[in-house]
Amino acid sequence: MKIDLQLTEAAIEAIEQQLNGTGILKLIYDTDGCGCAVNGVPSLWLVSEPSAFDVSILTNAPFPIVIDRHQTVFFEEQMRLYTQGSGYYKLSSNQQIYSVHVACIDKRHT
Questions:
Q1: Quick check: helix, strand or coil at residue 94?
Q2: CB-based burial of residue 92 (10 Å sphere; 0-12 exposed, 13-18 middle, 19+ buried)?
Q3: Which of 19, 29, 73, 104 has the fewest C-beta atoms under 10 angstroms from its C-beta?
Q4: What does the pLDDT look like over 35-71, one tens digit per residue?
């Protein structure tokens, strides 16, 4: 499945500041501490490079965005990302709001 994620200009600027010229953005369905694999929350990770199972997301952002191909089932084909300030984002589609509190976590040095 192909995912198209459109970011607002404010979201692009906020993420570019966090990336600071290095790394890529990864959309994940984070299940840590949520019980089982079908219970999770969307999250954004700043990573140094894609993993073996990552695929590119179509986007209007000037930086690459990837997702683990096994996690695409948790998301719709067309979504939008807005900045909420303080490092949090809103992820939505025409059908639903995934979260208004999507964290962007720097995983480049862990």
A1: coil
A2: middle
A3: 73
A4: 555 667 899 999 999 999 999 999 999 999 999 999 9
Residue 29 host element (H or E)? strand 24-30
pTM above 0.85, yes or no: yes
What would the pLDDT profile of 14-28 be if each residue is shown by its tens digit? 999 999 999 999 999
> What mean pLDDT is predicted for residues 85-101?
92
1 token code pair: 């499945």
Alpha-carbon distance 1 to 24, whole Å?
20
For 13, the 3-state DSSP assignment is: helix
The closest of 26, 2, 15, 24 to 78, measured between CA atoms, is 2
Specify the 3-state DSSP secondary structure of 71: helix
